[in-house]
Protein: OLC1v1012743C1
Amino acid sequence: MSSSFATQKLNGKVAIITGGASGIGEATARKFAKHGALAVMIADVQEEKGRQVAESIGSDRCTFVKCDVTDEEQVESLVKSTVERHGQLDIMFSNAGMASKCPQDTLSFDLDAYEKLFSVNVRGVAACVKHAGRAMVDRGVRGSIICTASVLACCGSEFSIDYTMSKHAVLGLVRCASVGLGKHGIRVNCVAPGPIATPLTCGVTGLSPEELEQKFEPDFAMKKSGYLKPEHVADAVFFLASDDSKFVTGHPLAVDGGFVARNI
Structure:
């Protein structure tokens, strides 16, 4: 594929990426800008990192907005300011999330920790889908909403069950929203990454990316292809954001190197 053709994939599109300051969100922001997005709004609570990413992509193409997705008013303001500035919103990538901060099994389930995690992973995603959907409907935009789920949305887990529950909820939301927004020409999908060494995962485990990749490697069916990287997930998000997936909705697109096939 020539670079001139690739740059047209998102030509004139305006996108919001929550959790865009690092990991999958950062990789996706760079991917969108590379492929011709008119504007990429990076939303995150990590202000310094977010500004650095936006500046490195270029102020003519990318802007950082501090946003806590657990606060619906901040999400609504993010969407409204984007539309006011650029006249439209074509793509919402609801990617902000958090991992379990403590071991969560059935018999020692910490409900306070669960509520904090759900406020980000479920409430935050619901707010993004709601307000992005409203903006697209109001403007008559046949947009694309993509959420970050997980392969754990398709199976159970003995530990980190609050995280697993939250990703099941994301998948449920995606399926419901795809039905509700489909009549407006709006597609709603999610990516379901397998185990991946993002800054979030590294921070929770205390392991380096290299250590995590080696730890995860035996769980993948796919061999001789390296390790799962944020850029691989960004490729899938890009597909769901572009017109190449114009008849795909309500779908969890697994980027897992055969993790589910091997382990379920």
Summary: The chain has ten helices and seven strands. The radius of gyration is 17 Å. The CA atoms of residues 191 and 237 lie 7 Å apart.
